[in-house]
Design a protein that fits this description.
17 strands; 3-stranded antiparallel sheet; about 450 residues; alpha+beta
């Protein structure tokens, strides 16, 4: 229910020229007809691209497709892809280019009833150096979503004297990865090479000595010291101002698109440091500021509990996902650990309770541990409907660990399942255990 409260339908007024059709006010302040799709606005994309839209891709592809076509209409009438469209205009709230991630992932997962080449064109335009495009209010449209993009392209990162430099660099490179993936699917060779290189820009801020992403000056040197106790809520520090909704300790895990590589960058410190990050997290729900460790009420670390899988410790993913479900969701007025952000936390719960979680922008669903004894997911695809049955053997509140996972009888030997596999429907079966098990050892049958 909560995952469907937003975005909002905006094409619910009859077209004045054809009363049988709906119309909407575009970003050019003119009336447009919604031909063949429902027009949505109020898309909280920086939040919802992580969980809500991947959920729609599984259970409501028609709505997801409509939202993509709405974003493309906004780009056509407004000049650039929006980051957080509100009503009939840009809000430019938050950071990065989440529309690119959302659209690219949808295409990779089989939603093809939109003009993908047009979408790619707008993605490139929305992430290119600034030009002067003025909207109806006289504002420079290229300011929407392009904060410090010129510096990002020039240096390969946002320098420390720009606002929120580390978070912006990580978000921009994440979107560049999605643009690269879409370009590769469409065979756009020039875009492939450029955006693959850009997608690797996060490496320019990796401080291998500290094992985290750190602010770097325009002269190529890291700032003199990085504080793990300063966050964006303490902006009068050099470290704090480099991040958004968190600090260096919370953004050090931000590489959802390439988790295997992140694990290799840490080496043998990956599991110990990630585990400490959760061990030091506070159990209380809904705190205004719960510190610098895991914070379920903010987006940057929503995937972090699933990262243990990529360090060979799926049992710790199973342990900490259950800990989050037990402590950060309540059937009460204070039932979430923060702002639901248009269903983002609720959709996290839907996925995690079923035993798998999407890595946004990719085709991977990382395996966790279900908290239901069985469930039926109606996979509502544009090309037809299928059913996915979740079955759990040895289900018990004390059996929080996963002994094995099978998809349609085949034993899974890796800690994730692809969309192509999941989209076939059938039975995803978990066998549970009360003790930690090295779930994916031994290979497939």
């Amino acid at each position: 229910y909560r995952s469907y409260l937003m975005p909002n339908l905006y094409s619910d007024a009859p077209d004045p020229e054809d009363r049988t059709k709906a119309s909407f006010i575009g970003f050019d302040s003119k009336m447009h007809s919604a031909h063949g799709f429902n027009y949505y606005s109020d898309l909280s994309l920086w939040d919802t691209f992580r969980t809500v839209h991947p959920l729609y891709v599984l259970i409501d592809q028609k709505s997801q497709s409509d939202m993509i076509q709405s974003l493309l209409s906004m780009a056509e009438t407004g000049g650039t892809l929006p980051r957080w469209p509100s009503g009939a205009g840009y809000s430019s709230s938050m950071l990065g280019h989440p529309a690119a991630i959302m659209i690219s992932e949808s295409y990779l997962k089989g939603i093809r009833n939109f003009d993908a080449r047009k979408a790619l064109k707008f993605m490139v335009k929305s992430t290119s150096p600034k030009s002067t495009v003025v909207d109806r209010f006289g504002n420079d449209v290229d300011e929407y979503g392009k904060e410090f993009v010129d510096e990002y392209i020039k240096f390969g990162y946002c320098p420390s004297d720009t606002e929120e430099s580390v978070s912006r660099t990580l978000e921009y490179s994440y979107a560049d990865y999605s643009i690269y993936r879409l370009a590769r699917e469409l065979g756009e060779s020039k875009i492939i090479d450029e955006y693959y290189q850009r997608s690797q820009n996060y490496k320019n801020l990796w401080n291998d000595q500290l094992k985290l992403f750190a602010p770097k000056k325009s002269d190529g040197h890291f700032i003199d010291s990085v504080s793990l106790t300063d966050t964006s809520y303490i902006r009068n520090t050099e470290t704090g101002k480099a991040f958004v909704e968190g600090g260096a300790n919370q953004w050090r895990w931000y590489l959802p698109q390439e988790p295997e590589l992140l694990a290799s960058m840490y080496g043998d410190q990956f599991i110990p440091q990630l585990n400490t990050f959760f061990e030091n997290a506070k159990e209380e729900i809904g705190q205004m500021y719960p510190g610098v460790n895991y914070w379920h009420g903010n987006e940057p670390d929503l995937h972090a509990s699933y990262l243990f899988n990529f360090g060979g410790r799926p049992d710790l993913t199973q342990k900490w996902v259950r800990w989050i479900i037990d402590h950060k969701y309540k059937a009460s007025a204070q039932g979430l650990d923060g702002d639901d952000d248009a269903g983002t936390l609720s959709a996290w719960y839907v996925f995690s309770s079923l035993g798998f979680y999407p890595l946004a922008g990719t085709e991977k669903y990382v395996l966790g541990a279900p908290v239901v004894s069985n469930a039926t997911v109606e996979l509502d695809f544009i090309k037809g409907t299928k059913k996915l049955e979740i079955k759990v053997k040895n289900f018990s509140p004390s059996n929080i660990y996963v002994e094995s996972v099978r998809m349609n009888g085949k034993l899974l030997n890796q800690p994730y399942i692809t969309h192509a596999e999941l989209a076939l429907g059938g039975v995803l079966e978990f066998t549970m255990s009360a003790i930690p098990v090295n779930t994916f050892e031994g290979g497939a049958e």
